[in-house]
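Milestone M4 deliverable, item 7.
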Amino acid sequence: MRRSIDDATDDHPADEDRGPASWMVGMADDCDSCGDLRVVLTLEEVGQAGAGLAAHLAPATARRLRAAVAAALRELGEDPGP
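Output delivered:
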């Protein structure tokens, strides 16, 4: 089972130093060594589909990532939301 939840590109202006990045969050159970459902976070350069990194996150690790993003938003003075 694979399911895409959301995807987008980053907000960095296009420049000569690096191309725009693409991210995708989904779910998958196709990782034989993981043994259960995982949150999948994929990061890659736009136009380089299949050449990026896919992290298979256990629920506890996905929550840790969520908390880190919320902390960064608070540091920026932004409401991290629910």
